[in-house]
Amino acid sequence: MLVPLAVGAAAFGLTRVRVETDFTRNFRAGSPILEDYRFVEERLGGAGVWEILVPLEGELDWNRVQRIRQLESRLRNEVRIGDLPSTVSEESPAESSASEQPPATAGEPALTQVLSIADALTGVIDIERLERIPMLNDFVISQGLEQFRTRLPGLHGSLLAEDPDRPGAWYVRILLRSRQQLPAEIQQGIIDQVRAICADEAKGWPIDRPPVVTGWYVLLARIVDHLLADQWLTLGVATVAILLLSWAATRRLSRAVIAVVPNLLPIAVLLGALGWLGIPINMGVALIAAVSVGLSIDSTLHYLEIVRRRTRDGASATDAIDSAQHRAGAASVFATIALVGGFATMVVSEFLPTVYFGALVCAAMLGGLIGNLLVLPLLLVWLDRRR
Length: 387
What we know:
This protein is α+β, with helices and mostly antiparallel strands. It has two domains: 23-224, no CATH class; 227-386, Multidrug efflux transporter AcrB transmembrane fold (Up-down Bundle). 66% of the residues lie in helices and 8% in strands. It has 16 helices and five strands. The chain has helices at 2-14, 32-43, 62-78, 86-89, 93-99, 117-122, 127-131, 137-151, 153-159, 184-201, 216-225, 227-250, 253-277, 285-312, 317-344, 352-386; strands spanning 48-57, 111-115, 160-162, 169-178, 212-215. Strands 1, 2, 3, 4 and 5 form a five-stranded antiparallel beta sheet that branches. The radius of gyration is 29 Å and the shape is elongated.
């Protein structure tokens, strides 16, 4: 009766699971790296660093500089922080103080800095005066680029580079800076706005490839976005692989299915409990399912192998289970204690995914041990009675 109740409660809890959307919340409050993040966020324009690569057919000239400046102007003025999700607004004061996330306001500019080769040129060229002398535009731009290349070759190479695969084609690199301590939904919304503006501006340009929005900020947003899906994928693959190997080891599909149940049940209960408690899934939690099942299935196979051998020798199902309980049970207990002791050392880390991973793997392995010593024998008895 308890097993169906646990499964039902876990299933409902799984529907409430949410993902940790702020990457900086993966560190303990007060840790040096979080303090450094906060300093950059509050005083240096944000820790989110990313970029746009704009392909050009031909060298940078006056017309292309003006188009780059127009793109930058739109990025500064039109990219805004969207509405904060309800999960952020409903956080408790304790959660907010734990990360001390700087306040964000919907509608405020999302990009704190936008920089490209066009800005470097406007620093040494009077653009307004140059606009009144069209015949000199391209000459002045070429001279400005040459001086910039001569005096600051490193910076010039990081902002303007020739495509190594296409001689004569160039890339302009627009550097962006934004706040990192924002929910992933907001970050993805900012990225989508930048991509939309780039695609709109590129329509009238003589280029055959759209601008590419990339960088660390984009990568982090993608990691968080795919976190939950990857967890279910890895768990599904691990379950199928373990089921097939258990089938090969036990030589019976029914026992292979029974082998998986006591190992999956603790995982489902743990993840369901996270949903009930409102604890978001981070990178560490996303790994525990596949890892824990792989660790605990070992004791299950030893247990079933003893049962198989004893029944093959003519023992009854009850005697075979009793023998496995005494012979494999003690070994499973000591092996689990040793593994739990090893994984428990992770809880002292400042990186919270490591803490969650260590603590939850320990809990899952203890749950797997209970499943192997209590649930597995009951399932074997039930299976024997149905034969």
